[in-house]
Specification:
The complex is a heterodimer of chains A (179) and B (147). With 179 residues, chain A is of the alpha+beta class. Chain A is 17% helix and 41% strand. Chain A has two domains: 29 residues; 117 residues, Immunoglobulin-like, CATH 2.60.40.10. In chain A, the strands form three sheets. Chain A has a six-stranded mixed sheet. In chain A, strands 3-4-6-11-8 form a five-stranded antiparallel sheet, with no helix packed on it. The longest helix of chain A has 27 residues. Chain B has two domains: 86 residues, no CATH class; 54 residues, 2-Layer Sandwich (CRO Repressor), CATH 3.30.240. A four-stranded antiparallel sheet of chain B has the order 2-1-3-4. Chain B contains six helices and four strands; from the N terminus they run H-H-H-H-E-E-H-H-E-E. The chains are: A alpha+beta (179), B alpha+beta (147). At the A-B interface, helix 1 of A face helix 1, helix 4 and strand 1 of B.
Chain lengths: 179, 147
């Protein structure tokens, strides 16, 4: 049996201009797109402003400070941090922090694991595991005294942590890590 | 896994930004466009592969982008609306020798680009052009008047 010839007409579905030139112009869509473009560029501008101010970390809005009620420990840190980007948490010790020539600080595990504590400066004399975290012991003579921990969070999200000078009130806070 | 997610996110971020940049009339890349392409590509690759620069990781990222690109190309062929969103729509810039101010202004076209497109089609003046169409790839197609 011979093959049937192809007889379906070729239909031109592309809209024509002046019923003459098949262009496929969609001016209504383009007008909507121009409106979208204006909105998106304004949105991009807002993102840059927010970034400069630190809404995504590493700026004025991202800095935070917390103290316990007795001011034994004051914590400076970034409550908005960026994944895989270093940020510094500073422990400023106040009166009553030094006992027998030592300062003992407890940090929860979350500061070490999800928030990625990379290094601690100065190095503690003793590190002791337990109670869901690590207790660092530093040799200390007199105030002012500060310790810095370099954080480098691995994953985005909100991460809670707890720190305290042993014998003092705990400071509980969270760090929001943006991708 | 994070690399694949980063690659997908990077693809869509770049797609959006390149899409909302105006089409370059004449579709020829100038040094200005080269700067944009290389700088944006270089920046986005940093977050895509992160610290893992292994062949495995980079290969997975490339495969993810290729698969995504192919899927979007398939979706565009099925949906004209998606095609218009991603590639834009052709626009008539000149009709019967008259510029269309809404298109020229909206697409930020320059008079020099229109005249250059006309010359390449043998039309010495804008008035000699019957239709000029700004194509989706940024090229301007010119149909001169018959006489």
């Amino acid at each position: 049996m011979p093959a049937q010839p192809f007889t379906s007409p070729v239909e031109d579905s592309v809209p024509r201009v002046d019923n003459k030139v098949a262009v496929g112009e969609n001016l209504d869509f383009q007008r909507k797109w121009w409106k979208f473009e204006r909105a998106i560029w304004f949105f991009f501008f807002l993102i840059l402003i927010a970034d400069v101010l630190g809404a995504f970390g590493r700026g004025w809005l991202s800095k935070a400070r917390q103290s316990d009620s007795a001011k034994t420990l004051t914590l400076d840190y970034e409550h908005i941090a960026r994944a895989s980007t270093p940020s510094i948490m500073t422990f400023n010790f106040g009166p009553n922090a030094i006992h027998d020539g030592h300062i003992q600080v407890y940090v929860s595990d979350s500061l070490v694991k999800p928030l990625g504590a990379q290094r601690i400066s100065p190095q503690p004399a003793v590190s002791a595991l337990g109670n869901g975290g690590i207790t660092y012991t530093f040799d200390a003579t007199q105030l002012p005294a500060t310790v810095q921990i370099a954080l480098e969070p691995s994953f985005p999200g909100r991460h809670y942590f707890r720190v305290q000078v042993v014998g003092g009130q705990p400071i509980e806070a969270n760090i929001f890590v943006v991708p | 896994m994070p690399t694949i997610l980063h690659a997908i996110a990077g693809y869509f971020v770049l797609l959006l930004i390149v899409r909302v940049l105006k089409r370059r009339a004449g579709s020829q890349m100038t040094l200005f466009e080269f700067v944009i392409v290389f700088l944006m590509g270089g920046i986005i690759i940093l977050s895509t592969v992160g610290n893992d620069r292994s062949v495995t990781n980079c290969t997975c990222a490339v495969i993810a982008v290729a698969l995504l690109h192919r899927s979007i190309a398939w979706a565009k062929s099925k949906s004209p609306t998606l095609g218009a969103i991603i590639d834009g729509t052709p626009l008539v810039v000149i009709k019967h020798g008259e510029q269309q101010p809404e298109i020229v202004t909206g697409m930020k076209l320059r008079q020099e680009d229109l005249e250059a497109a006309g010359r390449s089609a043998g039309a010495n003046k804008i008035e000699d052009i019957d239709y000029a169409i700004l194509e989706r790839n940024g090229r301007i197609s010119v149909i001169p008047k018959e006489n």
